[in-house]
Every structure is written in C-alpha cells, then in structure tokens.
Amino acid sequence: MINIKSKSELEKMRIAGKITGGALELAGRSIRVGMTTKELDRIIHNYIVSHGAKPSFLGYGGFPGSACISINDEVIHGIPGKRKICEGDIVSVDVGAYINGYHGDSCKTFAVGQISDEAAKLMKVTEESLYKGIEKAVVGGRLGDISHAIEQHVVTNGMAVVKKYVGHGVGRELHESPEVPNFGREGHGPRLVAGMVIAIEPMVNAVGEGVKVLPDGWTVLTQSGSLSAHFEHTVAITPDGPVLLTKPD
To answer: Residue 37 is part of which domain span?
Structure first.
C-alpha cells in the first residue's frame, strides 16, 4: 500500500530531509585524502545526532554504520571502516536521518581531487539522470515515466543502470511502497498523486548492469569492476510539482 502524506506529515519530513541534506553536504566538505571511511562516518553520525535526529541506517537490518560509504566500483552499502580515501577516488555517501517519526534519505557521489574523465562523465550523467526522473514526478503521471526518463538518459550516454536495486517510498519507514526502478516504460505503473513521497536514486555503472555482493553481506560491487555512481533525493509529489525534501536549505 502506498502511504499518502498529509501537509503536517510533509512538514515533519521536511525537517528530517533538511538534516539528511545537511549531513550529506558536510560529508562533501569533509572528505579528504587519507581519511578513513570510518572517520567520515563519525562526522556524519555526530551531525545527525547534534540536530536531535537518529541515523536511519545505523542498525537497520544489522548495518553497522550511520552512512553507506561506497568507493569506485562499490555501488551501494559500503560499510565504514579502516579503508583510506585516496586521490582520484569517487565516493558515494548515502545518508538517512530519522526525527519526529519520519525519515529522510539522500545520496551523492563526490570526487576526491583529480579524477579521470570517465569518472567525471559517470558522475555527471548519473546526477543528470536523477533530475530527469525528478522532472517526471508530477501529479497525474505514472511511476514508469520516472523510471524511463532515468534509463533513457543513462543508456543514451553509453552506461548502464543497476536493475537489482531500486528507489522506494519514504515516510514513517525508511523503505515503503512503491518501489521506484531506474528502468521502465512510460505510461506504466502506479498513478502519481499529491502526497506521495519517494526516494529517486539512480545507481549507474560505467560498464554493464551486473553486480555482486561481498561476503560481508552488504557491500555491492560492479560485476565488471567498472566505476559506479549514485545520486538520490527524497521527493514529495505536490500539486505545484516535485519538491526536494532533502535539500540542506
């Protein structure tokens, strides 16, 4: 069942979203060569807690970190630890904050120093595909319109969307209905109505859609060994168009 949010619920979600976006913005400012992913996770954790919220991911299904930090060929769900961030890495940071009974969820891939042309193009196309999808998050449309717009932009640029993992509804639960694939057909899927809140999150591989999971049970890598990027916003569908709830300001 798709939960439709009231105006008061959306206001609470704005608070959760603002904290989420602020934590992600701080992560981008804090990333530096030589720091460990655990150090970056601690910075994110402290920001969320200092704003009266709880990290949505910490303990979720047993996940041990406050953020998912995935580097280079890691697609999603990277566990913070002793790995050091290096010059030329691309680092995807996925963050969630829970406050007043509601979650925010957002992700961005950051460049560390001078990155390759391939990495720069991958990041650009992935972020563009996110906004192509957001443009279709309008009352009266179909969920497939969002999915198709994302896939079309990615494929046109010679890259591949990850099909095994998808976006989702957000609200009282971190993951709610409906699923929001990054591939699909225009004019298909549930009708988009005011009050729906969804996390749109293209995960894009430079080469091939295939992925594999490490023995840790969490970290997802590209099967090809190619780079992967991930961008995400929590988006409210309103009569006035899509509203990004996870903007930091």
So the answer is: 7-244
